[in-house]
Amino acid sequence: MRVVSLVPSLTEAVARSAPGALVGATDWCTHPPGLDVVRVGGTKNPKTDRIVSLAPDLVIANEEENREPDLAALRAAGVEVLVTEIRDVPQAFPELARVLDACGVAARPRWLDEAEETWSSLPRPEVRLTAVVPIWRRPWMVLGRDTFAGDVLARLGVDHVYAAHPDRYPRVPLEELRAAAPDMVVLPDEPYRFTADDGPEAFPGLPCALVSGRHLTWYGPSLAEAPRVLGRALRAARP
Predict the structure, then answer these.
(1) Is the pLDDT of residue 239 over 80?
(2) What average pLDDT does range 230-237 have in this prediction?
(3) Are 60 and 4 in contact (CB under 8 A)?
(4) Nearest in space to 220 (alpha carbons), one of 136, 81, 114, 142
(5) Within a domain: residue 144?
């Protein structure tokens, strides 16, 4: 089986569960560390000719992270493309199982069972807080409706302010974000790399939680530890 992954979290899942199956991945596929495969460009601008030259049996993609014209070009070249759709935590588990089955993984991996059990046994949050969750600046963009990351936070007791916005990732002026008066601001380190020196200064007087973007937005082996890792960061910033 020869697989090219265009989704960083799925790259990690396949690499861990089907060693040797991956022959290509995006430049953003950072896990597992030391992954030695051909790099095929970004998630939004993959080099389709390079992908085709790898003669993959399957390309795995995601409806949000990858662009339909690129996937259509691969299909037109005779490449099979599997597209996932993952908008909340429960949806992640059957979709991951579907991907691994398509990649020739015969038995459900232990990490997937552990991740599902971890999320299904989460205690009900004792306190609920509101948050603004930027994912980009210049311009400022935040989590909006119907996002995986938003569902992750909600299950940990954090309701993001723009969950009912018509757009999934709306652009919102900084003044409006401040005026929303959330209990806290959640700043992930991807896709924009917010740091202690780049992000919190825009929200004076508001508690800011710097969190792992991999644990907030990835659906793969990191799901098993995400509640613990994110919970620790959120508690550290709680007002």
Answers:
(1) no
(2) 94
(3) yes
(4) 114
(5) yes
> Whole-angstrom Cα distance, residue 23 to residue 171?
36
179 in helix, strand or coil? Answer: helix
Q: Under a CB-based contact definition with an 8 Å cutoff, are residues 81 and 57 in contact?
A: no
**Structural domain boundaries enclosing 13:** 3-119
Write the CB contacts of 160 (distance below 8 Å, at least 6 apart in sequence). Answer: 130, 131, 132, 133, 142, 143, 150, 153, 154, 186
The amino acid at residue 228 is R
Q: Do 177 and 79 lie in a common domain?
A: no
Closest CA to 215 of 149, 159, 150, 169: 149
What is the overall mean pLDDT for the chain? 96
Long-range contacts, 192-200 (Cβ 8 Å, 24+)? 192/134, 192/135, 192/136, 192/137, 194/134, 194/137, 199/134, 199/137
Closest Cα partner for 37 from 5, 10, 75? Answer: 5
Domain C-terminal end among 73, 98, 119 = 119
CA 159, CA 165: separation in Å to the nearest integer? 13
Residues in the chain: 239
Does residue 115 contact residue 90 with C-beta atoms inside 8 Å?
no
Domain total of the chain: 2
What CATH number did the domain enclosing 168 receive?
3.40.50.1980
- Rounded-to-integer distance, Cα 207 and Cα 234, Å: 10
pLDDT in tens, 141-190: 999 999 999 999 999 999 999 999 999 999 999 999 999 999 999 999 99
